[in-house]
Amino acid sequence: ELFTMxxxxxxxxxxxxxxxxxxxxxxxxxxxSQDDFFKPESEVETDERGFKxxxxxxxxxxxxxxxxxxNWMKSPASSGVVxxxxxxxxxxxxxxxxxxxxxxLLYNYEPLNELWNRRxxxxxxxxxxxxxxxxxxxxxxxxxxxxDGHVWPMYLKYKNxxxxxxxxxxxxxxxxxxxxxxxxxxxxxxxxxxxxLRE
Length: 199
Prior knowledge:
Low-confidence stretches: 81-89
Number of strands: 5
Radius of gyration: 17 Å
Structural class: alpha/beta
Number of helices: 6
CATH topology: Rossmann fold
Largest sheet: 5 strands, parallel
Mean pLDDT: 84
Number of domains: 1
Strand content: 15-25%
CATH architecture: 3-Layer(aba) Sandwich
Helix content: 25-40%
CATH class: Alpha Beta
CATH superfamily: P-loop containing nucleotide triphosphate hydrolases
């Protein structure tokens, strides 16, 4: 039994930390991260202001990402996941394989839309997002004005597209809540969905 969930987020929304914690709590769980599919800097377009356009799908090898997800779906047991079960896992979930796909541009890419069981989207208000971004070191480093000129506008554009798509079922999560609260909610939601699948 396969179960795929997608964790999407504004930059520095906490998706990677949440995904790693869930992996330790769920049976036969693996993670694929969109960050692993960025093109090298030389292949990323630059706009008229000199900003590297990283927050768009063209900055990523999305075909390779989809291939990785499909390869996992074909053979989840050989994907290198740790098969030792978390102690609190119910017996009826022993034969379930879970894939968490985490990234910042997942839900408006058509080839991925048919693969999900659950979608989560972590949101942050502008000031908190900018504050968290400023504490991170990026390679290449953010140029002056990059957050306001590219990162935040692209996030708003993307989020608006999602909200306007009535057929898109997304669970929006408040990224200002504690990791413990977010983890508890998502874990309970996944277990509920898994039990439905097993019925």
